[in-house]
Specification:
Largest sheet of chain B: 7 strands, mixed
Radius of gyration of chain A: 39 Å
Strand content of chain B: 15-25%
Structural class of chain B: alpha/beta
CATH topology of one domain in chain B: Rossmann fold
Shape of chain A: elongated
Largest interface: A-B, 84 and 89 residues
Number of helices of chain A: 20
Distance between the termini of chain A: 70 Å
Oligomer: heterodimer
Strand order of the largest sheet of chain A: 6-5-4-3-2-1-22
Helix content of chain B: 25-40%
Largest sheet of chain A: 7 strands, mixed
CATH architecture of one domain in chain B: 3-Layer(aba) Sandwich
Number of strands of chain A: 33
CATH topology of the largest domain in chain A: Metallo-beta-lactamase, Chain A
CATH class of the largest domain in chain A: Alpha Beta
CATH superfamily of the largest domain in chain A: Ribonuclease Z/Hydroxyacylglutathione hydrolase-like
Strand content of chain A: 25-35%
CATH architecture of the largest domain in chain A: 4-Layer Sandwich
Helix content of chain A: 25-40%
Structural class of chain A: alpha/beta
Radius of gyration of chain B: 35 Å
Number of strands of chain B: 32
Number of helices of chain B: 23
Number of domains of chain A: 4
CATH class of one domain in chain B: Alpha Beta
């Protein structure tokens, strides 16, 4: 019984997320992404490691895609249509709806703009998506007899989910990308506390701590407002899905509040089309957005209009959303060339830009500056530049919080930078005492998995273990008698309720073991139960310091101790025993002293059968204590007897 | 698990689902709590003329009025016979014999099934957890809010209610009611009277929803660690579901009215209901139809058809065939063509259909048809919740049919009404008096409005306006008695189309379905048992009828238990002289989680050295013991009875140990008592005894 985790992508890097986890023989592929930084075979995960023969349909139980970003879904059409995987694929409704848009957009960029040979066609994308089973959050899906999966809200982008997978007793969670704080349109990640063997988490910001988002948002709005108020144009290069909607909601709301009239444009049809999806998928956004839907669907942007190419150089202020986000080409680059040379204009940059893009160059630049586009052209940049610093990824605190909340037996970090992951691993191990790994691509981590033995339980047993099991302890008299502070600390009575399930397990060949209560055993085994007890009756010397002359005169015979004397002696016995054996719980009640099954009581019978030693006469007064105990308390019993024999009791 | 099932109400089709109480593992579960809105027909709709006529009649106890009343009983029913008072609502009267504060869980299987909930939740003692699918909760909320809004209009007419209950509820009034009304008010057996309640308030609805825990599609929710509850689509309406309840002792399935293939909502998801231990069949559809005779014929026919050798896959396909949905589609197109005819002849169309899915489909199709026929006829949807209802329908793709979901994937709105609204083909108004409606008003027009009972809501006003127009058309549902429901609008010149829609499992499909689901024990309505006969050999059948408690035998006597491996590795097995059987003591921490028991290692258990008392089985043979002791160097001899001083039973054996130290061993059938002063001797004797007995 084990878990094997083969990291095919996003091991010690960001890009082409793909982890194949084998749980008790079931193999699940989490995410099937592509790497945007590679153009060769390295852009896809090395699928040959899953199956040498290429029979992926039998090698995998299912594929789970966490969200629609290309580094999580990009290789899926290739894997299903070109590599020939035919098994089940699961993703949330929004991912199934928006994933193809992302894939198609990417395909177009690759083929139409860069003129590359296409890895998969539009038809491939459509065929691939037909095989996908869409799931709702928290919907529990039985993939097959043994494998159960469930999606949890992850924030990040619309439809992003963490996935729980369980096979037998072993269970894991794969987080995908997630956000632990809510943003304008999405809620924070949310998951149940589950018994887990492993959590595989992203670690993009493994060492970063971010402060309030609202301050950042205010900064952004102020920058945009200032620019528009001064008659400038604002260029917001973004991806079509996710960030564009978030920022647009922010602006739309601000426009309404501040009564700003400057138009907001969306450059690409993609973003407008995406809004249509967002409107239908509003249940997947944050609580606040959802609640307002009846009167106003938050994705019905009132101030947004379609962009026309002629507007680029039209006078007057405006805000323009344009793709791609890192100004690596396309429309955002075209507009950038036009608007960058003017001081009144503003360009916002996303939080993360890949090296080599214009966005990346601008991040480190100080205006005014000159940016070289290629050999022939360069652009004078005089406009203002504002870098957005909010991210849909969780920060280090969020990762730690999630791991702490889930408290799995093991953690694997993926989707991050190696040095930062190493730091986080140390923190997880030292602060949370959880084993942590961050394998590189194509490495495998093997872990043991939880396993339990299936048995049956009778009602009698279950009832007995669910009933309260009270134990009342009176702190020993000696402690009580010591005056002062001691009395304050120890309550007069301590109550314990340790519920321990005790059963007898019957194991028979070819049958499930059966846990029964010991009371039922006699009947089930058809054997009579037998008790084995020990008894010992022995004299203890005591001293009667009372001046009862008539007594002493009569005899030193001890047989006839009075009732009162018996009680006094027992009381004294319990007190002295508590003193001498303070690790034992001594109870005195109803004419006997009891420790576990051991009981001692004053014996007044002359011919007690348990008195094996011959009765000889004693110099001093003696009292006989008759003790009995069951075999299990043998050790304690003899210890107490030894102590008792040494005692010197005294009636005063 | 002791299972007790009581059917509180068999219901009346789509709008009034059945209601049950089930006691499982000590928890009481209530399934659905609907209102019988068809009973509203005993009330008069909002009066057009002033109430004077009615009040005149009211002079109490005069000879004349009694005469009028007597006449009422004798002659056939007229509009004036209806009760002119603020309507009361008919709830499930059988719940009144239960203490509602003892209900632990309420499971709602459709929006209609929650219409009575505010009556429960407004009680202080009511603390049950209510589970409803998110889509059903939203639609149910809108239906309740609409009910309250429509009722407000009547409240304004009749003014505040009298103290001591309304006049019509007095026995001497009831006595003189026409027999048709009496039957609705008192029920067939005259006991329904207790179920009538004045409607809840908007605040009651709000508080009710506050107490509802809404579930996502197929979400498993755990109650008290013991019950794992899951709702799966039933196909009847958006958000409606069947319930699967997993307990440590088996699985229980509650099957509400279900439709295999639906045009609008997610199909009946029946495969996960397979292999239940107890199956509560609560789809009364076939008993609600008149033509039981036909059903018998066809069902026996199918029973022959599906031979035992049929592959499950074949049966599944036959269940999911589209014949039913094609029939439904045809019905809709027929209704559309009727509407078109009316409009063409200058009449208006009033669609008073309460089924949300059907209503939305008709709206789409009529709009498309009118557009394609180049008719500039406006379509109005008039309801206090029209806007929200249509908005909600467009944001719950998770609960819709495959066809609708495909619209999402292709970027189209889920329903055409989004486009129709945008293009101003369809107009929404919250109420009939909306200013913008008056401005836009034109006839002929097509109006969609509640309520299907034709007693409350905007529909009443339109009926009063058009009932004399032979060109106009009323589209209504089957299920209400048309004579009674149209009574206030007589003489009715309007054309009326009453259409029945599929609202459950057809009798021909019951047997194949049960064949796939293979439940161990089926709770089946007695009424239907006569029609269907025995379902299949592998399931045991228990028949139930309304307001009768049925005791279901325990499906399993033992629960499943998962023992942690760490704990199992500590087991010390003992042989007890039986072949193949070994016994071990087990100790741990019992927890119940997600419907399963787990025995876990206690934190201090590994360290604790505390011994548990051993359990001994068998008998001590005195001779064997003597022998065993001898091997250990202990010399013992049986003592004659005479030595014994105390009176004992005859089966006592005494063994006197002489060496090394004196001791006495007393053996009976069930007990061995060793008396000795020597610890080492005691240990040796103990060992000897243990070797003779089986020790666990």
């Amino acid at each position: 019984m084990a878990i094997e985790c083969l990291v095919l992508g996003a091991g010690q890097e960001v890009g082409k997320s793909c982890v194949v986890v084998t749980i008790n023989g079931k193999r699940i592929m989490f995410d099937c992404g592509m790497h945007m930084g590679h153009l060769d075979h390295n852009r896809y995960p090395d699928f040959s490691l899953i199956s040498k023969s290429g029979d992926f349909s039998n090698a995998l139980s299912c594929i789970i895609i966490t969200h629609f970003h290309l580094d999580h879904i990009g290789a899926l059409p290739y894997f299903t249509e070109v590599c020939g995987y035919r098994g089940p694929i699961y993703m949330t409704y929004p991912t199934k709806a928006l994933g193809p848009l992302m894939l198609e957009d990417y395909r177009k960029v690759m083929v139409d703009r860069r003129g590359e040979e296409e890895q998969f066609s539009s038809q491939h994308i459509a065929d691939c998506m037909k095989k996908v089973t869409a799931v709702d959050l928290k919907q529990t899906i039985q993939v097959d007899k043994d494998l159960q999966i469930r999606a949890y809200y992850a924030g990040h982008v619309i439809g992003a989910a963490m996935f729980y997978a369980k096979v037998g007793d072993a269970a894991i969670v794969y987080t995908g990308d997630y956000n632990m704080t809510p943003d304008r349109h999405l809620g924070a990640a949310q998951i149940d506390r589950l018994p887990l063997d492993l959590v595989i988490t992203e670690s993009t910001y493994a060492t970063t701590f971010r402060d309030s988002k609202y301050a950042k948002e205010r900064e952004f709005l102020k920058a945009v407002h200032n620019c528009v108020a001064g008659g400038g144009k604002v260029l917001i290069p973004t991806f079509a899905l996710g960030r564009a909607q978030e920022l647009c909601m922010l602006l739309d709301d601000y426009w309404k509040r501040m009564n700003i009239k400057a138009p907001i444009y969306f450059s690409a049809g993609l973003t407008i089309q995406a809004n249509m999806y967002y409107k239908m998928l509003i249940n997947w956004t944050s609580q606040k957005v959802k609640e307002a839907y009846a009167t106003h669907n938050a994705f019905d942007f009132k101030n947004v209009c379609n962009f026309d190419r002629s507007i680029i150089n039209a006078p007057g202020p405006c805000v323009l959303f344009a793709t791609p986000g890192m100004i690596s080409g396309g429309f955002s680059l075209e507009v950038f060339k036009q608007w960058a040379p003017y001081e009144a204009n503003l360009i916002t940059l996303p939080g993360y830009c890949v090296a080599g893009t214009i966005g990346h160059k601008l991040m480190s630049a100080k205006t005014p500056t000159t940016i070289r586009l290629d050999e022939g052209t360069q652009v004078d940049v005089r406009c203002q530049i504002h870098q957005l610093s909010f991210s849909p990824h969780t920060d280090a605190k969020g990762i730690m919080d999630l791991i702490k909340f889930l408290s799995p037996k093991n953690v694997i970090l993926v989707h991050g930078e190696k040095p930062k992951m190493a730091v986080l691993k140390e923190r997880v191990q030292s602060e949370l005492k959880i084993e942590c790994f961050f394998p590189a691509n194509n490495e495998t981590v093997r872990l043991p998995s939880s396993h339990s033995i299936k048995a049956l339980a009778t009602d009698e047993f279950l009832k007995s273990s669910l009933n309260p099991n009270f134990k009342f302890l009176r702190p020993s008299i000696v402690e009580n008698s010591s005056p002062g502070a001691g009395d304050m600390r120890t309550p007069p009575l301590q109550v314990f309720d340790d519920r321990i399930a005790e059963a007898v397990l019957l194991m028979q060949k070819n049958e499930y073991p059966k846990a029964v209560h010991q009371k039922e055993l006699e009947k089930l085994l058809s054997e009579q139960s037998h008790s084995v007890t020990f008894s010992h009756c022995f004299p203890v010397v005591y001293n009667d310091s009372r001046n009862r002359t008539e007594d002493s005169a009569s005899s030193n015979n001890t047989k006839m101790t009075s009732d009162l004397d018996e009680r006094l002696l027992l009381h004294q016995l319990s007190a002295l025993l508590s003193d001498k054996c303070n690790n034992l719980t001594i109870q005195a009640c109803e004419g006997k002293v009891q420790v576990e099954s051991f009981t001692a009581s004053v014996c007044s019978r002359d011919n007690c059968p348990h008195r094996t030693t011959s009765t000889s006469s004693y110099e001093t007064k003696v009292v006989y204590f008759c003790c009995n105990w069951s075999a299990s308390d043998d050790e304690i019993a003899w210890k107490i007897i030894l102590t008792m024999k040494d005692l010197s009791l005294c009636i005063s | 698990m002791l299972l007790l099932q009581t059917c509180l109400s068999e219901g009346k089709g789509y709008h009034f689902p059945a209601c049950h109480i089930l006691c499982v593992s000590g928890f009481r579960i209530l399934f659905d709590f609907p209102l019988d809105l068809s009973a509203l027909t005993v009330f008069s709709p909002i009066p057009i003329e002033p109430l004077t006529k009615y009040h005149e009649e009211k002079c109490p106890e005069s000879f004349e009025s009694t005469q009028i009343k007597r006449r009422k009983i004798e002659k056939s029913l007229v509009a004036d016979d209806l009760i002119h008072a603020e309507p009361y609502f008919k709830t499930i009267k059988n719940l009144q014999s239960w203490n509602i504060s003892f209900i632990d869980i309420v499971l709602i299987s459709s929006p209609m099934g929650m219409l009575g909930l505010p009556f429960l939740t407004r009680n202080k003692g009511f603390t049950a957890k209510i589970y409803v699918t998110d889509a059903a909760a939203r639609l149910g909320q809108l239906m309740m809010e609409d009910l309250v809004a429509m009722h407000k209009e009547l409240r304004l007419v009749y003014g505040p209610g009298q103290s001591g209950g309304p006049q019509w509820m007095k026995w001497n009034e009831l006595e003189f009611l026409p027999v048709e009304l009496k039957e609705v008010i008192l029920g067939k057996d005259g006991t329904d009277f207790g179920g009538w309640m004045p409607l809840y308030s908007a605040d009651d609805v709000k508080e009710c929803l506050h107490n509802v825990r809404s579930l996502k599609y197929g979400e498993e929710v755990c109650y008290n660690g013991t019950l794992l509850i899951k709702g799966l689509s039933s196909g009847l309406e958006i958000g409606s579901c069947n319930w699967s309840i997993t307990t440590p002792k088996g699985k229980i399935v509650y099957l509400s009215s279900s439709i295999f293939t639906s045009e609008i909502c997610m199909n009946f998801d029946f495969l996960p209901l397979q292999g239940s231990d107890v199956f509560l069949y609560s789809d009364f559809t076939i008993t609600n139809k008149g033509n039981i005779e036909d059903d018998i014929g066809s069902s026996s026919l199918v029973a022959d058809d599906s031979s035992e050798n049929d592959e499950i896959g074949v049966v599944v396909n036959s269940l999911a065939n589209t014949a039913e949905s094609t029939e439904e589609t045809e019905k809709l197109s027929f209704l559309c063509s009727c509407a078109l005819d009316s409009v063409k002849s200058g009449g208006s169309v009033l669609v008073a259909i309460g089924r949300i899915g059907i209503m939305i489909q008709l709206l789409e199709q009529i709009a498309v048809l009118l557009e394609s026929s180049d008719l500039e006829v406006p379509i109005f949807v008039i309801s206090s919740v029209a806007e929200e209802l249509l908005a909600v329908s467009n944001i719950i793709p998770e609960w819709l049919s495959k066809q609708r979901q495909d619209r999402l994937y292709s970027g189209q709105p889920l329903f055409a009404h989004v486009e129709l609204l945008k293009r101003k083909r369809v107009h929404l108004f919250p109420e009939i008096h909306s200013c913008s409606l008056l401005k836009m008003w034109q006839e002929p027009c097509v109006i969609f409005c509640p309520h299907w009972s034709l007693r409350i809501g905007p529909a009443v006003h339109f009926l009063q306006r058009w009932c004399g127009d032979p060109n106009s058309l009323l589209v209504m549902e089957e299920g209400v008695d048309p004579n009674l429901s149209l009574l206030p609008f007589n003489p009715m010149e309007m054309k009326v189309v009453q259409c029945s829609f599929l609202s459950g499992i057809a009798s021909t499909k019951i047997k194949p379905l049960m064949k796939i689901l293979q439940p161990t024990c089926v709770l089946f309505p007695e009424k239907m048992g006569k029609i269907i006969g025995n379902l299949n050999q592998s399931s045991s059948m228990i028949y139930y009828s309304e307001n009768q408690t049925v005791l279901v035998p325990k499906p399993k006597s033992v629960s499943e238990l998962n023992i942690a491996v760490e704990l199992a590795s500590l087991l010390q097995c003992a042989n007890i002289g039986k072949e193949d059987l070994t016994v071990a003591r087990l100790k741990g921490e019992l927890s119940v989680e997600r419907g399963q028991y787990h025995l876990l290692m206690q934190k201090e258990q590994a360290l604790s050295s505390q011994k548990r008392p051993l359990l001994y089985f068998g008998r001590v043979d005195i001779n064997l013991l003597e022998e065993a002791l001898k091997k250990m160097g202990v010399i013992a001899a049986a003592t004659p009875e005479a030595m014994d001083t105390s009176p004992r039973s005859e089966n006592v054996h005494m063994l006197q140990v002489l060496e090394p130290v004196k001791a006495l061993i007393e053996v009976t059938e069930s007990e061995t008592v060793v008396s000795t002063s020597d610890e080492f001797l005691a240990a040796r004797i103990s060992e000897a005894v243990r070797n003779i007995l089986y020790v666990v």
